[in-house]
Amino acid sequence: MPIRVPSLAAALIAAASTLALSACASLDMATNSQPEPEFVLEDYFAGKTLAYGTFEDRSSKVMRTFSVVTYGSKTNSGFTLDEQFLWSDGERQRRTWTFTKLSEGLYEGRAGDVEGVAKITNRGNAIRIQYDLNVPYKGKTIKLRFDDWSHLVADGVAINRADVSKFGIHVGRATLSFIKPDAERPVADELEKSFTQ
Description:
By secondary structure, this protein is mainly β. 14% of the residues lie in helices and 55% in strands. A 10-stranded antiparallel β-barrel has the order 1-2-3-4-5-6-7-8-9-10. A hairpin with a 4-residue loop joins β3 and β4 (92-103). The longest helix is centred in the C-terminal third of the chain and has 11 residues, at 186-196. It is globular and about 60 Å long.
């Protein structure tokens, strides 16, 4: 996920914030997934997906909000995902991911501003993407580590949380909701009926 970090210098000297990061590092697919609903990357992100989110700094202050539209398609060798971002300050960004399925529940991903290869794991209702992203910062480029979890909830909605770190120190978090615009909404429909009864 493209990001701009507003106060990186302050974050890097805040060693206490590593406590939050270490808690995230202990999570894995066995402890942070549920069997249902099944969340399959190339099925869920096929076609158009919308997303809306926030970016918080290390103190949990919301620095920016953003909107996203993605278009995904299967290819002979895997899956591509084109992401377009609009930030609350008017900045626009675009990234195209290429994913290759290595085995059941394991993928690798590549994108232009991603350093090396992203590791993607999948189990039950969870998808985790771990990667290093080259981010513009004060006229230079810095490399940030992303630990990106998405959980499929209901009605085609997935909740995403990406913890961002530098040198192992937590510097921010992006949180967003993915929405499939044409998905049926059985859970929401049932809840709505309960209010009218």
